[in-house]
Batch of 3 targets.
Target 1
Amino acid sequence: MYLDYFGLNRLPFSIAPDPELLYLSPAHHEALAHLNYALTGHGGLICLTGEVGMGKTTLCRAFIDQAPASVDIAYIFNPVLSATELLQAICQELEVPCSLENGQLMQSNKQLIDALYQALIERYASGRKVICIIDEAQSMPAPLLEQIRLLTNLETHKDKLLTLILVGQPELQQTLAQHSIRQLDQRITARFHLKAMEQKQLKPYLQHRLQQAGCDQSLFNNDAISYIWQAAKGIPRLINSISDRALLGAYATDQQKVSKSIAKQAVFEVLGEKTKFPVRDQTTKEAVSINSLLKYVASSVILMTLLVAGFGWISQSEDRGVSFSKISKLWVDNQYQQLAKANGLDIKQFELENCQQIEMNSEFSCLSLDWPLKDLRRLQMPMAVFDGEQWQLVSAEQLTTTPIRSFILWQPVQGFDKGFEQALKPGESHELIAWVRSQLEQTQLEDFSAEWQVIAPAGQQNFGFNTFYDPILAEKIGAFQQQVGLKTDRLIGLKTLLALQSLTQNEGV
């Protein structure tokens, strides 16, 4: 989508293990050197470990691509096999005949090992080297690791016939450290743990990827690079995903570089960070939802296709296509704007693209709700929910599953911002109590509309007695909670406050 905009000829931050995009940081360079150690001698066992997304598979593919023609390599990327299946897979990768006369694969481990040993002897005699790489080795069960140990016994009087490379996550180190696996662990001749990328390495990494995709310009400013590194914790796969989204965000907002605010939005889109997004800075337009962009572009493509097919009056454009600036007026509102409109706010008069703008220009505030589904469905108000892929505006009855994140716009009740940190218990005093009494008096639910009299010394009703959570009010709160389906604990918490507010607002109070 953004390739032509930035002059790229391919996606620079694809998460596919493409050796052409491999950037050899000092750690990756040393890891590749350990793999190349397999080419220097005959036989041995090499272990390469690293966290998820560190580029281990990319390193393996780069190693395979640059291996000399005199080297035969078997690459096993699914180690969750039986011992027999592993031997069959190695033989097939090395093109070692392992079929019976009836065409079926050998099922005997002895037959498979004999066939493999004979082929290794022949290749050793002709000067060829044989290497077997087993990726995701941390998933290998103990019986399979024992089979690996037995494969290291394939040797002549002077040399090992097969070099094995185990590649896996840090759990592989823990497995090899077990006492029962010590025989295999002792046969490792070289091992290396791939650590996360350092912050100073990220800028040249990004530039290397961009150059490989045909762009020599720097498309990320320093603040954005720093934020991406902190969010991704130096893990290349996460860096790639965030950077790809960030470029999409820059394209969407017609920016020539990724700023920190765009990087923050990209982090949110990829990692789902539990912070308020879009970000609160002066460039709020940069914080536009990328998911909304994807939905808009998809629908726009369909619409344009129908128009071309039906009427044939849309001509081919000589430039890169419709720019974001040209379609910005048709932009789909983000979740904040949708909620603002649903609550009767005028988004044309005020910029209401995030919580800060809503709070500055209205009586509403954003309220994030980490509630069970039954409690969310009880709210009779619109809410924005995130299902892991996109934000949607829904009503309570439309919810069928608990969303990953959700928030509403509400008008904070009188006294809510004054020391309300936990639910109020009978016997406590708080300004909220006066509001609760007022709401219960106005509700049309049975047994709550009648007025009550606050017991207090004559003429002293304004001295705080109406803000005291007395037993009579506690009984009424318990009855109210039971009637609306809340836990009858007589505690005045956020759920009870919202239930009262929602009920009276829908009754026209």
Target 2
Amino acid sequence: MSNKKIVILGGGISGLTVAWRLQELGFQTEVCESNEFVGGLAGTVRPEDGRYCLDFGPHFFITQKQEIVERITDLLADDVVSFERSAQLYVQGRFLDYPLSAKNVLLNFPLSDAIASIITFVWAQLKSAAGYLIRIDSKTVNFGDWATANFGNHLAKIFFRPYTEGFWKIPCENLSPEIIPTSTRLNFMKSLKMMFLKKVSGPAKSLTERELVLPLRYPKRGYGVIAETIANRVLNMGGFIRQNARVVKVELRKDGKYLVKVSQDDNEIELNADHVVSTIPIPNLVNMMSPESPLIVRQSADKLGYLSLIVLYVVTTTKDLLDTSYVYYLDRPYHRLAEMDKFCDSLFPAGENMLAVEFSCHRGDEIWNMNEQDLLELALPHLEHDNIILRNEVDKLFVVRAGHAYPIRYLDFRKNLDTFLNYVGEHNNLDVLGRTGEYMYIDSDQCMERALVLADKIAAKLH
């Protein structure tokens, strides 16, 4: 066992996985998590003594990396269910496949929209092939221009622009094309290929492709079981995990090591670290650095914002609320509905069901400040209109909130992110990791993969 100690800020899936791997490699790790539960966005809250299991939005585990497959299989054993992907989009009164495919446009849109979509899409492709788009500076083009150039003006107008602005609550002109996560990016031509071939050759990189060719897994007691089991491995191997522990200062000492100050149970604890890994929001890290970060770094960090997420869980005894596992919506105050009974029936007491109603928002805005009943009143007129659930079918409500759910890739985010990353790079014993820490829109399996790589890198440096 090495006497080198790594302190990890944040006990989400990234922080826990890097701790797990470092413990395997013989290092001492200590994880500081500000919440009373581990897992972060991949965590599960269990009110009423565990009778209900509430995720931060319904999701499942999927991966094609053999090492991750083996680790998850070892972690969960038989404590999982497997199912096939089933999701829809609700657009202009029609349920379409998710993600939007060429088949949807050709067969499910109104004839006028289908024709306009095809014509403008073909025109956009011809312009691209002719080289007209070469003159567009990819660093300054906004999401609206990008969507028009790639999918045609009509599809951009009726789907991509309204969906994006409805979710992010920000005009497309202020967003980078990189607002679309790499894991879900799927161009229209590829969807045509998938429509006719029904298979994907080579590595399946997009979420859509991976869902088509790989098994989907979901733990029987909520998605957070993955993070909780990893945490147990860390503890069993001699690591430490502090919960309800808020990091308040990360002080660089003259010897290149760190003093991490943590507030826990009204006490301030000092932790000495040979290396620090941060998975927490970038502005938080920058503001707690000592010596103080340069002004340009603080200003850049403050411009790296995060979209917030609220999930309202509506408990009911009514079954078959949706025809699919989950549905994405345009023109609704919520952006997604999911029927949890279609994920796993052990997330709530027998005879019951839960509808997860997801609201994207900005921390401190009107929606963020709503309580459970306010959120229900906001959603219920639409839920009743769409024949999903009636007021008298609502038995109880729960809510979970995540203040830093999605990195917002504003038009100029790359410049600000690079300024921050260059600053981190100047610190020999400091790394950032994960969706929140690296400002990357990635899935749990990708978080784990990056954590394992980073752990090996740190081990090689500290040995």
Target 3
Amino acid sequence: MEIWLIILLLIGGLILFLAMGLPIAFAFFLINFIGAYIVMGGIDGVSQAVQQIFSSLTTFSIAPVPLFVLMGELLLHTGIAQTTLNVLDKFIGKIPGRLSLSVISGGALFSTLTGSTIANTAMLGEIMVPEMRHRGYKDAMILGPIVGVGGLAMLIPPSTLAIVYASLAQISVAKVLMGGALPGLMLALLYAAYVLLRCRLNPDIAPAYDISHISWSEKLNDLAKYLAPLIVIFLMVLGVIFLGIATPSEAAATGVIGAMILAAAYRRLNLEVLKQSLRGTLHITVMIFMIIAASKTYSAILAFSGATTELVGFVANMDVNRYLVLIGMMLIILILGTFMEQVSMMMITIPIYMPVINTLGFDPIWFAILMLLNLEMAMSTPPFGILLFVMKGSMPGDTKMINIIAAAFPFLICDLIVLIILIIFPKIVMLIPSIM
């Protein structure tokens, strides 16, 4: 069978199944079994595909996923997130757009603890939207910051999708996690700068309101009581990875223990919280593990068919600058983001992109961060950016999708600016991984 027919079957068939409304993992499993039967020799090929499914899940690199998810679920269901936002709001004071800045600072902090873009966005929407509407904030300063900063969990460690990406691409989980730290911080600062500038130019978009005076002793007391313990957990997780003391899996387990101790210290840890946290962790983990199993099998079939080698050879023989190829790959992600969610895009593109990146001589860790940022942008790209729908679900019924898209657009421009900077200055990404 011709290589290009195999590529058309595996990629075109997958897109067809997704368009028919099949769940992501089931669409991949179905095309995997069809592809294995055709490409790998009938029933024996299907048997090999089943073995690949099991072997893809018996790897130590994906062990941090359920642990990081559990850590985020514990912090969410114990109400620690709400308390943290209240403390941050006290420190921001009377700065223009203070609630939007609280969203950005709180979202950046929660990104270091939840690891989930959807959870981050939903949590911020649930907590902050009622208060911001009550204070007269316009949609541009409510919707935009929440959608923008919600996606930071894609980059700021410990990102669950960064772990999934590293596992699928078979590169260092620890270095991918740490490589996203500086770009994530850059994004948060750029978001905050945009909010400040927009509120200075148009104060009506985020009306000022009187707040009661809060003494520095009260602020410092809240800092020590609520923020400092979260920062300790953050350092427990990332510090031991950076120093090489522990693997990401061991660090994630440490983070779970820290979250449980913190919840118990606040007297918020009870049987109902544990049940909710474990239920949420089980739901998300099963979904992610099914996706990993399906994607790795898909990669194996592509490699067995010779399609991967053919694609790499085609790119290697192209007489164009390698950065043009890179930009083309980024544009494909943005186009896919208009009708597909990020996990599907990772599963389709990583098996094809990684051999090409290695052939072109790009650093795979650097490219991983570019991909994650690009995927974050795709999550806010209309018409099917998943964070747009998460935000819609957090708003009153009279909120139109076009308003959410318009509010999120300036933050997409911020993402694009950082993406261009990272392409021009790759050392920003590699600074922390290079000294680990």
